[in-house]
Amino acid sequence: MQQDYPAIAGLDAEILAVSVDDLSGAGRAVEELGLEFEILSDPDAEAARAYGVFNLHNNNLPTPATFILDKDGVIRWRYIGKNERTDRPDNDEIIAQLRELS
């Protein structure tokens, strides 16, 4: 996501990553990777539970998922991973969805 952050920000969008790692792990990732977007720490997976993507693969973990919300907080597009670790949309797909919504 970092390599396409300027294009995403140019579409008046913001990236917020949510991790079940503790806050120190999330902060370390931001620094080490030079990320321009925030990683929010959610060790109890409350966000994953609220968005309905917790334990979808019977592994007691959040499923990789991407949501695009409008300025009112309404989900306008979603991508839910089909496996427990690596299935995510590519950046071009996310950017295309953002363009459709703008």
Characterization of the model:
The chain is an alpha+beta fold and 102 residues long. Helices cover 32% and strands 19% of the residues. It is built from 4 helices and 4 strands. The longest helix has 11 residues. The two termini are 19 Å apart.
Set down the secondary structure blueprint.
Blueprint: H1 5-10, E1 16-19, H2 23-33, E2 38-41, H3 46-50, E3 65-69, E4 75-80, H4 91-101
Task: Tell me the strand percentage band.
Answer: 15-25%
Strand order of the largest sheet: 1-2
CATH superfamily: Glutaredoxin
How many strands appear in the DSSP assignment? 4
Structural class from helices and strands?
alpha+beta
Q: End-to-end span in angstroms?
A: 19 Å
Number of helices: 4
| CATH topology title | Glutaredoxin
The appropriate CATH architecture is 3-Layer(aba) Sandwich
Shape: globular
CATH class: Alpha Beta
What profile does the largest beta sheet have? 2 strands, parallel
Low-confidence stretches: none
Mean pLDDT rating: 92
**Amount of helix:** 25-40%
